[in-house]
Amino acid sequence: MFAYEFMRNAFWAATFIAITCGVVGVYVVARNFSFLAHTLSEIGFAGAAFAVLMGLRPLTGMLIFALLGSIGVGELSMRTEQKESSISAISALFVGLGILFLSLSSSASSYATNILFGSIIGVSRSSVYQLVGLSIIVLILILAIQRPLNYDSFDHIGAVAHHLNTGLVGVLFLVALAMAVSIGSQVVGSMLVFVLLTMPPSTAKYLGKSIPSMIAWSVGLALAGVWIGLCLGYITNWPVTFFISIIEVGAYLSVYFTHSRRKRV
To answer: For the purposes of burial, counting CB atoms within 10 Å of the CB of 32, is it exposed (0-12), middle (13-18) or buried (19 or more)?
Structure first.
């Protein structure tokens, strides 16, 4: 399997993407940003489609749209009372825009499939370098704000009481989230990137007793999902995204029902 360069590229890219989504996902779940992550993936889809229309790399457009959208949607979700309705409207708008951009471009339908559902097998060596670089930037950003981010995510009232700049922390995290969405979309696509951002950390919430342990479990589960998914995809020639989704959801349901059964005993 590793005799093929495309599989080596796939494993390198998937490894760094899983680590990034596993770390960022812990804070996504802690801050109840799962819906926001899903919305950003759809904004990123529109950005990728726009990039295709303009003759640019899809990842470039996805990054630009997701970064701008993260600030706008993040602020909207904090200020408006009907945040779910507002975010749903924005989500629908950008899905429509993405479909329009793809229909106006002359690219083949395979481009749309790759954007929506990912194409990790087709990642080139230059794309691997780009993804690894972006992943490192996200991880450095999270590490730089980790102490106030931990406080704000798991004890927001305490963070405000201690006069932490929660506004700045929130904006910086939204930037990290937007980049993680754009990176993760390269594996599972813009429509399913929330699988990597929500399922491993949701499972880790039941397994970890501290923030570091939750991050460790989340990263481990994300890595297991993408590694096993790639192997099964290579063996069966089925979509890698399918296996990643099944593995992560299966792990979550197993841990959830086990935890629920223990609580009833």
So the answer is: exposed
Nearest alpha-carbon partner for 178 in 126, 141, 215, 217: 141
200, 25 Cβ separation under 8 angstroms? yes
Q: Cβ(156)–Cβ(33) under 8 Å?
A: no
Half-sphere exposure of 20 (CA within 13 A, CB side): 32
Model-level pTM? Answer: 0.89
* pLDDT digits 0-9 by tens, 121-173: 667 788 889 889 999 999 999 999 999 999 999 998 888 888 888 888 988 99
CA angle 11/13/18 to nearest 5° reads 90
Structure tokens at 189: 């696509």
- Look up tokens 């993040």; give the residue: 74
Angle between helices 146-154 and 5-30 (to 10 degrees): 50
- Cβ(197)–Cβ(254) under 8 Å? no
Q: Residue 254, Cβ neighbours under 10 Å: how many?
A: 11
